[in-house]
Amino acid sequence: MPGVTAAAPNNAAEKSPKMKMQSGGKKVLARIKLLDGTIFETPIDKRANGVELLNIVCSHLNLMEKDYFSLTYTDHNKILTWLDLTKRISKQIGDAQLEFKFEVKFYPPDPAQLQEDITRYQLCLQIRDDILSGKLPCSFVTHALLGSYLAQSELGDYDPEEHGTNYLEELRFAPNQSPELEEKVMELHRTHRGQTPAEAELHYLENAKKLAMYGVDLHPAKDSEGVAIMLGVCASGLLVYRDRLRINRFAWPKILKISYKRSHFYIKIRPGEFEQFESTIGFKLENHRAAKRLWKTCVEHHTFFRLASPETPSKRSGLFPRLGSRFRYSGRTQYQTRQSLIDRPPPNFDRTLGKRFSSRSMDGELC
């Protein structure tokens, strides 16, 4: 380090289905599913890069700490893919309809260090999605605690006359929500009296960040013995899971180099205290695209969380083959976004957690 080297071969651009254009041919209509479940539509230039669309969405949401967020789309292989913000959208989507999801890409290890409540609120929405989809497993106790903070954020102080006994029916906070769980949430909700929505959301995030799978991007793979595993990329490094249990962890400072070749992904590890030589560990992914996707995810997470600023293509060395991928993470790093102080009054915004989950009409419309 200080940075992980990331060698990789070239790969031809993928093609997808047909783009839907508005009349005139100069603009295309993009539809984005936001984290509150609503659909935002906007015309964009057909030659626009991904970052232009992300900026429009963040402006619509009044978000300034936008570096933690990005857009996903479903490619022609039915795989959810992050939009490359540096490239023209049409070259990535091909002729497909421009339908995206706005999501958290980089989960901050310490949400309290985010500068604005509106950013933390969007992170709460993402974590709720992760919990409801099963991506972020929780125990009964944790479901109850997190649900109680969401209730406080959305509904305010518990009022027996206003809320009654069934007031949580419209608030979804767990994938298998039961009367027993709702009763526990109501019991805990009563203890949060006096907390503002922003305070309740911060408590929610402070507890969510402790969950084992918080911010972990999982990729199915096989180890050197052909055993099925999951590789997880997160702020702290690369994690290895087998049967839902973490069996290994490679922190970014321990990793010297990441690379992929065909369907194989490799990490070169620093020698330990009593070791003399570096070691290379290999994993087999489903195919070349999956290996490259994992490699790119590692490059982006390492750069965002570990480096003060992104590496530039001019910093190429003998470790990078001439025909290797030129991909680098080009956005701001976490260090840079924290250094960029926001100077504005706290923006007003609507909290729509209850509205979102009292209606499922938007489900399945996008991606």
Automatic annotation (TrEMBL):
Domain FERM positions: 28-309
Subcellular location: Cell junction, Adherens junction; Cell projection, Rhabdomere
Signal sequence bounds: none
Gene3D superfamilies: 1.20.80.10, Phosphatidylinositol 3-kinase Catalytic Subunit, Chain A, domain 1, Pleckstrin-homology domain (PH domain)/Phosphotyrosine-binding domain (PTB)
Coiled-coil zones: none
Gene Ontology BP, a term: actomyosin structure organization
Keyword set, alphabetical order: Cell junction, Phosphoprotein
Organism: Darwinula stevensoni
UniProt xrefs under InterPro entries: Band_41_domain, Ez/rad/moesin-like, FA, FERM/acyl-CoA-bd_prot_sf, FERM_2, FERM_central, FERM_CS, FERM_domain
A Pfam family of this chain: FERM_N
Entry's Gene Ontology molecular function annotations: cytoskeletal protein binding
PROSITE patterns documented for this protein: FERM_1 (PS00660), FERM_2 (PS00661), FERM_3 (PS50057)
Highest classification ranks of the organism: Eukaryota, Metazoa, Ecdysozoa, Arthropoda, Crustacea
Protein name: Moesin/ezrin/radixin homolog 1
Span list, region Disordered: 1-22, 341-367
GO CC field: adherens junction; cytoskeleton; plasma membrane
